[in-house]
Design brief:
426 residues; alpha/beta; Rossmann fold; TIM Barrel; eight-stranded mixed beta barrel; six-stranded mixed sheet; 43% helix
Length: 426
Amino acid sequence: MHPEHPAPPEPAGWRVLLVDDEPAVHEMSRLILAGLAFEGRDVELLSADSAAQARDLLARHADIALALIDVVMETDDAGIALVQHIREQRRDIDMQIVLRTGQPGVAPEGDIMRRYEINGYFLKTEITAQRLHSIVISALRGYRHARALRGRTGVAARSPAPLPHDPARVALAAELAGLDERDVVLMQAQPEVALASSQVTGIELVPHWKTSLGLLPAARVGVAGFDAATRLRIVEFMLAQASFWGRAWQRRDGGPLKVSIPLVGESVGDCATLDAVLRSTRESGLAPGTLDLLVSEAALLGDGAGVRDAVAALRAAGVSLTLVDFGAQTISLQRLNHVVPDRLKIHRLFVRGVVNAPERMALARSLIALSQTLNIVSVADGISTDADAQFFKWEGCDIGQGDALAPACAPADVADFLRHGRRASH
């Protein structure tokens, strides 16, 4: 061991993160792993019953050696998305990741092992007590080896250098670079409804790209790793769509109507993106306050002062910002205060079926209360029943989206909807 590059200090025990939405799996795993030790250190099991909760634990514990992750949880690909979060957003290449599934048809082993940087993939029915012991010990040995190697070379555990290329991502990026959005994007319009008045106050444009992998939403396209020219082309396409449909809807309706579009790709502080948005607002003829950008946590909170300056410029031009997937990310109140968005869109995980889940109700109330404290507009995404709509109305949520309020439609049909009155069906 070279003295100038000492190995990073290790915690008292080996931390293992178990992510699964079945309580029985946690109970059984805790019983099986009780008393297990490796090289004189005990195994400490951390439990998360969703990918969202797992992200929170990952943010609080930087020394997790192994993650045992269920593939299908709050969504069919929640476990896969968590793997991408660990490897790509957190840049953690030391943590050992083992996927487990009870539904092998949803995510076939061959496809998963080729496309994602994981250390094992098992059916839940295959994992006996002895097999689980073996999986954990093998993974801890691999983690220890990676950490020791990191100490000898002096390379940081979370290297800023890009991870090895995922062939599927590279292929998707190349495919997107050769597409023309006018031919391949399927666009829907999702009305936004003021819950207090049942009035439609805005429309979100929801694009899906037709690719060899099927229809992909903006969030999936945004992480494909395409080049700057492709990114700018996509941004300009979405801005053009917002301008065109915004003018069409306002001519028909005669009143203000917010138009929201996803910001695909880089941070709002990216110069080319910022210039494109500001140029579009000048040339579109839309009233200030019409254009709204749907941004992720990473897009809004990266680049420090650069993002703050960009947000100030956007607001001066009458552009608002909506932070999406609120509640399902690792954002803290301190970071949220750093760059305060205009609106918070509560993740569907905390919206759908809320009246039937006390824990979800409590979380939804806390998210709405936080938005009220910060004087930010709250948006509940994915309201599917009248009961859920009433819950969010009573709790003081400002805006709702979902089939129970106003179903998504083709952009051309929005004009007819507005012509017959802006009051939603709820």
